[in-house]
Amino acid sequence: MTKDDGETVEEQKKKPCRFWIWALSSVLFRLILISFAGNLNLSSRPEVSTPLTSIRRLAEGYWLKQASMSPYAGSMYHGSPLLLSLLGLLTVQRIKGQPSHLFCSLVFVIADILSAILLRGIGHKLQMAYGLNARLLGLLKSPTDKEGILPSGDIAALVYLWNPFTIVCCVGLSTSPIENMAVILALNGAVTRRVPLAAFGLVMATHLSLYPAILTIPVIFLLGYGLDAPPLKLFLQTRNVESDNRSSTSSASKQAKSKPTAQLPFLWRTVVHFVFWVLVWSLCVLVLCGLSLSKHGGLEEMFKRTYGFILSIEDLSPNIGVFWYFFAEVFDFFRSFFLIVFHVNILFMLLPLAIRLKHRPCFLAFIYLAISSLLKSYPSVGDSALYLSLWALFVNELADMKFSFFLFCGYLGVSLLSPVMHNLWIWRGTGNANFYFGNAIGYACFQIVFVVESVSAMLNHDRALKKCNPNHQKVKN
C-alpha cells in the first residue's frame, strides 16, 4: 500500500465521522430552538402551519374526540385519524418549566433524523449506480476511480437536516416532518427493492396528504426498471462497439450484429408484488380509520373532511400558495370549473414527464414532488424542504445547472420577505392582501424556474454523456 492509498483510506474513515458530527449538531440546534419555541411563535406562521399540518388544529381534534364528539365536528381538524391517535395524547402532556407540546417536538426531531438516514441510504445507492454506469460507458478507468463523484447521500441528508425550512417546520410544530418521512420511506423501499416497505410508505404518505399518490409512477419505474441511469441507447452503442472490437470477422459477431437490439427488461412480477402490498396496507389503514371513527360517521366522514377538504379548498386562510387568493376573488359560479382546472394541471404533467424521464425514476419523483408542492391546495415550506433535499441526491448530474445563485437568492429573499409582508398586512395595517400574495406569486415563479432548470440540466447531462463517451465516438465515426 502506498502513502497515497493510506491517506485515501484515512479520508474515507473520516467522512462518516464528519457526517455524524454535522448530523448531531443539527439535532442539538433543534433542541436549543425548541427550548425557545414559545418566544419564536413559529407554530402560528402561515408558511409553516397549514389547516392540514397545524398541531393546534390536531390538539383541537383530539379534545373533541376525548369529549365523545367527532374530531371533525368543529371544522378545525382535517388530518388523519391515525395521526390524531398517535400525536393527540402528546399534545396534552406537560412538563413543568418546559414549553408546551415538548413531546410532539421530540417526535418531529426523531422523524427528521430517520428521514435523513433514509435519504442517505438512497443517495449511497444512487452514487453506486452512477459510478457503475460511468465505468460501463468508459468514463471511469477502474472500479476504485471515484474522482469527481460527490457523496450525494451525505449531501442530501445534511441538506435536509440543515435546511431552514426543515428546521422551522420541526420547531414550529408542523406535522410535515412525518409526511416527509413517509414519502422518503416509500422511495427508500423502492430503491432498495423492499417492496412491502415501499408500499407502506406510499400508502401512508397518500393517506396523510393525498398528493404523494402521484409517486406511484416513479416507484413502479424504480421497481420495474431499476435505479437512475443514462439513456439505454448509450449502453446499446457500447455493447455493439465491444462486440465489433472482439471479433469483427467471426461468425458470432455477425450473428450478434444481425440480431435486433435488446430492450431493457421490465420486472412485472415485482410490480405485481408491489400492487398487492399496496392493497394490503390500504385495507389495513381503512380498517383502522373505520374503527377509530366508528362512532363518528366512519370512513365517509373521513373522506369528506380530509380528501374532500383538500380538493374543494374550503379554507381560504393565507398561505404561501396561490389558491387562497384566487378562490377568494373568483365568482362562486365559476368555482367548480377552476377547481377542476387547477387540480387537473398536476395530472396533465405526469404522463409527458414519465415518458421522457422513465430512465431516471428517482429524479422523476423529485420533479413530481416539486410540481405538487407548487400546485397543492395548502402548501408549506415543509414541502420545499423535501424536494430540495431530493434535488441534492443529483449533485453529480446537476453540477452545471444554470441560475443556481439566482435561485438561491430568490428562495432566500422570499423567505425573508414573507413574514415582513404578513406583518404589514395583518398587524400593522399599512399593507393589504396584495403584499403577501405578491410574495407568494414570486415564490411560485422561483419554483417554476427551479423545476424547469433542473429538468433541462438533467437532459443536458444525458446529452453530454454521448459526447464524452468514447464508444459513441467510435459508432459515430
UniProtKB/TrEMBL annotation:
Phylogenetic placement of the source organism: Eukaryota, Viridiplantae, Streptophyta, Embryophyta, Tracheophyta
Biological process according to GO: attachment of GPI anchor to protein; GPI anchor biosynthetic process
A GO cellular-component term linked to this record: GPI-anchor transamidase complex
Family statement: Belongs to the PIGU family.
Compartment annotation: Endoplasmic reticulum membrane
Membrane topology: Multi-pass membrane protein
Record has Transferase as a keyword: no
Pfam families reported for this sequence: PIG-U
Pathway: Glycolipid biosynthesis; glycosylphosphatidylinositol-anchor biosynthesis
Top-level taxonomic group: Eukaryota
Signal peptide: none
Transmembrane portions of the chain: 19-38, 72-90, 102-122, 165-187, 199-225, 274-294, 306-327, 333-355, 362-381, 401-421, 433-452
Main location: endoplasmic reticulum
Name this protein carries in UniProt: GPI transamidase subunit PIG-U
